[in-house]
Specification:
Family: Belongs to the inositol monophosphatase superfamily.
Strand content: 25-35%
CATH superfamily of the largest domain: Fructose-1,6-Bisphosphatase, subunit A, domain 1
Number of helices: 7
Catalytic activity: a myo-inositol phosphate + H2O = myo-inositol + phosphate
Strand order of the largest sheet: 4-3-5-6-7-8-9-10
Radius of gyration: 18 Å
Number of domains: 2
Order of helices and strands: HEEHEEEHEEEEEEHEHEHEEH
Bound molecules: D-MYO-inositol-1-phosphate, calcium ion
Keywords: Hydrolase, Magnesium, Metal-binding
Shape: globular
Cofactor: Mg(2+)
Protein name: Inositol-1-monophosphatase
CATH class of the largest domain: Alpha Beta
Distance between the termini: 46 Å
CATH architecture of the largest domain: 2-Layer Sandwich
């Protein structure tokens, strides 16, 4: 593992480590996913595989790059946050519920951030081996092809991806927003792995995506990939993409979907 911090070097490391992690997730799915436990709520599951994959990635990064920090879903934040230092942002298995049920839509998501800016990211669908990558300013790529997002401009003709969090109160709110949204768009998809949703949007297989309540590990890599494919990636009312909202859409569609979500978010209650 090199010690460089250029986007290209960081991406090369991310791809190598994420591929190995995806292989572990896949193997454990075939052999034994181990213990299944719940975290914040009864719907929030975590398997022994989520933890094993995270440990493997943290060990690989630590061994090769002891000066870097790592933020992972299962074990939290570790290491430096010094100015100019690299922080890796990891979702060891995004789509754990799909993983549990054997649905082929779960992924390893790994991004490299410096001073709050994501410079490189990779998402590997561990079930299929499909890989999406991006570096800041260097475009988004899959299987050697540069990606471009949808050019849809009409909300009524847009296919929108979304997701639901694990907190029942938030879900109830999301359900109210959803009930109204489906009357205004072509259709809605909920595939169950946010990082992969963002990659699908990057290649035009979803016209737009939004979700409230995501964590950095869900959208750090996929957000860069979608942005590098031409999407506007942001929150509501000028905020950056974050736990309040991750919204992405092609430039012409963004304001229309944004304003609708602001309206529905307010009408949907707490
Ligand atoms: C979840 C998935 C899901 C999204 C949830 C996430 P996890 O991540 O990305 O699609 O709707 O908000 O928490 O728990 O499977 O890594
Ligand atoms: Ca989880
Ligand atoms: Ca996740
Ligand atoms: Ca996860």
């Amino acid at each position: 593992i090199s010690s460089g911090t250029s986007p290209g070097e960081l991406l090369a490391i991310a791809v190598r480590v994420a591929r190995e992690a995806a292989a572990t997730a896949r193997r454990m799915r075939d052999e034994a996913i181990g213990d299944v436990q719940t975290k914040s709520t009864d719907t929030d599951v975590v398997t022994a595989a989520d933890k094993a994959v995270e440990r493997q990635v943290v060990e690989a990064l630590r061994a090769g790059r002891p000066g870097d920090g790592v933020l992972g879903e299962e074990y939290g934040d570790a290491g430096t946050t010094e100015p100019g230092a690299v922080r890796w942002i990891l979702d060891p298995i995004d789509g754990t519920v799909n993983y549990l049920y054997g649905l082929p839509q779960y992924a390893v998501s790994l991004a490299a951030e410096v001073d709050g800016e994501v410079l490189a990211g990779v998402v590997v669908n561990a079930a299929t081996g499909d890989e999406w990558t991006a570096t800041r300013g260097g475009g988004a790529w899959r299987a050697g092809r540069r990606l471009a997002c949808s050019t849809e401009t009409v909300l009524g003709q847009a296919l929108i991806g979304t997701g639901f969090g694990y907190d029942p109160r938030r879900r109830a709110h999301q359900g109210r927003v959803f009930a109204e949204l489906i009357t205004r768009v072509r259709d809605v998809r909920r595939f169950g792995a946010a990082s992969l949703d963002l990659c699908l949007a990057a290649e035009g297989k979803l016209d737009a995506f939004f979700e409230k309540g995501l964590n950095p590990w869900d959208h750090a890599a996929g957000g860069l990939i979608a942005a590098e494919a031409g999407m506007v990636v942001a929150g509501l009312n000028g905020a950056p993409a974050g736990s309040e909202m991750v919204l992405l859409a092609p430039p012409a569609l963004f304001p229309v979907l944004h304003d609708l979500l602001v309206e529905l978010d307010a009408a949907g209650g707490a």
